[in-house]
Design brief:
By secondary structure, the chain is of the alpha+beta class. Helix content is 35%, strand content 12%.
Length: 178
């Protein structure tokens, strides 16, 4: 989350997230595997410092879409995931957080082998399904997005007025603008 650049040896960052060391080896996702993914995800390691790659580095998370954050107890990313969920909630983003007690990173794919993994994954999937079914309010102006209908302004005049007051650094533009 905050260290996509892959500098997992950074003692300052590791101190913030003890699960990096506690679960670095022996629980499916290892430090070496995380470094491998980071190396393939980023063209340049310095891109990991960009908040759009590492969202905990953002000045604010206000206005983001609702989130469902899942971590596992035996996961090197557990503490970062929890910190991300906490930061979203502090920014008043609707957030549900699930900590998979006794589980490892990747437990969503272990439902056939573990009843606990199956139940935890089903809870999170049900919440995600509910978000999709009711549509997610965009951060901009009253548009709703749905699987069934295309986005339409609730009131075009209100929509345009709100859009004019939006912060220009939001990564997603309002749907009422061309």
């Amino acid at each position: 989350m905050t260290d996509v650049a892959g500098s997992f040896a950074d003692t300052k960052e590791n101190a913030r997230f003890p699960s990096r060391a506690e679960n670095a080896e022996g629980y499916f996702l290892s430090r070496a595997v995380m470094q491998w993914f980071a190396g393939h995800y980023l063209g340049d390691a310095s891109h990991g410092l960009d908040w759009r790659v590492s969202p905990l580095r953002a000045k604010t998370l206000a206005g983001l879409a609702p989130a469902i954050v899942c971590t596992a107890w035996f996961d090197p990313l557990r503490d970062e995931g929890k910190a991300y969920a906490d930061a979203l909630q502090a920014a008043e983003v609707a957030t549900k957080y699930y900590q998979g007690a006794g589980l490892i990173h990747g437990y969503f794919g272990l439902g056939e082998a573990s009843e606990t993994a199956r139940i935890e994954a089903q809870r999170a999937r049900a919440d995600f399904r509910a978000l999709l079914e009711r549509g997610v309010q965009t951060r901009s102006c009253g548009f709703r997005r749905s699987r069934i209908t295309s986005p339409r302004p609730i009131d075009p005049m209100v929509c345009r007025k709100r859009c004019d007051t939006l912060r220009s650094d939001w990564p997603v533009a309002c749907a009422c603008r061309p």
